[in-house]
């Protein structure tokens, strides 16, 4: 029996939140308030190495990181921040920089005003700003610096460094309940309470409410989902999503995707970071690519043309289609820093690279451009489909080069200035 109404599709309505603006000169990045979900990343260089850090930031920004966070943990690091900003400006990289502060942030922001000014945003972990009587004073000093230099702040709670005094208070309150909550629920409550109370305290100290972003970082998928659902319910600050210590390789990618996709589908989350441990010799920009691919495959944003490729089976013993898919995907991503300015809209293009006659022609017809390569025992010919119609057939040893040329010609003729003529 069929349904009486059409099957619904797509994510839930976005959670309503305030909007925070992160500025670097004339360049502005919006977070929350209906702005597209923003992708960010973090350096792993020694910040005191100004040249090395600036180069990595440039690479991250070129890959698509819309803001980049860097560690500010020492006088040497703080002194290097203005030089990093200056170097980026010389390279024409206007990505905003976020300073990540722990333990001594209050001192560094006061002692290095040029650092405080060069940064576009501060990240403060309220569990790492001091203990006892010092905590309130040192937290206030950091918020006062944000007010003085007109900078937004991310108040980032982490379950590995919770404010112990607050946790003890929550535990005492729990002990008074007729039926005490389990330890896990107490931890969730402490995370959410810490984030909201510290945001409220920042506003009491003079920081505008539209300059505050919150995060509650945990390393378990179900923990992250539970905490952010409650955080989203109890406040209207923009929320930064990220599974902390997600791990390396496929484990880190799968865990981050599982957690963030559920929340994003429910309309929760305004900016994301994929915290991947780089593999030996790995590229730091991979976390940016993964973040973009999560958002694009969910239909929330478009960053680069998508390549649709079959997984292969006994019909596709040749690896030709695998090689072609890899070359085309790499080519498209490498071109995007140029194409996104010259050919607006190209990021929504779909390219199909299929390996045999079973699904090859059908999938290729659904893409903007598609090629169906011959499977085992099939005729050595590769039909090319453009906007659903077969236009040509490629043969020989230069199929990859010829197909890449067809893709470029399609981009030039269908997007940007030439398409408008």
Automatic annotation (TrEMBL):
Molecular function in Gene Ontology: 4-hydroxy-3-methylbut-2-en-1-yl diphosphate synthase activity (ferredoxin)
Coiled-coil positions: none
Domain IspG TIM-barrel: 27-291
Residues making up the signal peptide according to the UniProt record: none
Domain IspG C-terminal positions: 307-406
Pathway membership, UniProt: Isoprenoid biosynthesis; isopentenyl diphosphate biosynthesis via DXP pathway; isopentenyl diphosphate from 1-deoxy-D-xylulose 5-phosphate: step 5/6
Record has Iron-sulfur as a keyword: yes
InterPro entries xref list: Dihydropteroate_synth-like_sf (IPR011005), IspG_bac (IPR016425), IspG_bac-typ (IPR004588), IspG_C (IPR058579), IspG_TIM (IPR058578), NO2/SO3_Rdtase_4Fe4S_sf (IPR045854)
Catalysed transformations (reactions): (2E)-4-hydroxy-3-methylbut-2-enyl diphosphate + oxidized [flavodoxin] + H2O + 2 H(+) = 2-C-methyl-D-erythritol 2,4-cyclic diphosphate + reduced [flavodoxin]
Record keywords, A-Z: 4Fe-4S, Iron, Iron-sulfur, Isoprene biosynthesis, Metal-binding, Oxidoreductase
Enzyme Commission identifier(s): 1.17.7.3
Pfam families, per database record: GcpE, GcpE_C
Functional summary from the UniProt entry: Converts 2C-methyl-D-erythritol 2,4-cyclodiphosphate (ME-2,4cPP) into 1-hydroxy-2-methyl-2-(E)-butenyl 4-diphosphate.
Entry-linked PANTHER family: 4-HYDROXY-3-METHYLBUT-2-EN-1-YL DIPHOSPHATE SYNTHASE, 4-HYDROXY-3-METHYLBUT-2-EN-1-YL DIPHOSPHATE SYNTHASE (FERREDOXIN), CHLOROPLASTIC
Similarity-based family: Belongs to the IspG family.
Protein name in UniProt: 4-hydroxy-3-methylbut-2-en-1-yl diphosphate synthase (flavodoxin)
Record organism: Herbaspirillum lusitanum
Organismal lineage: Bacteria, Pseudomonadati, Pseudomonadota, Betaproteobacteria, Burkholderiales
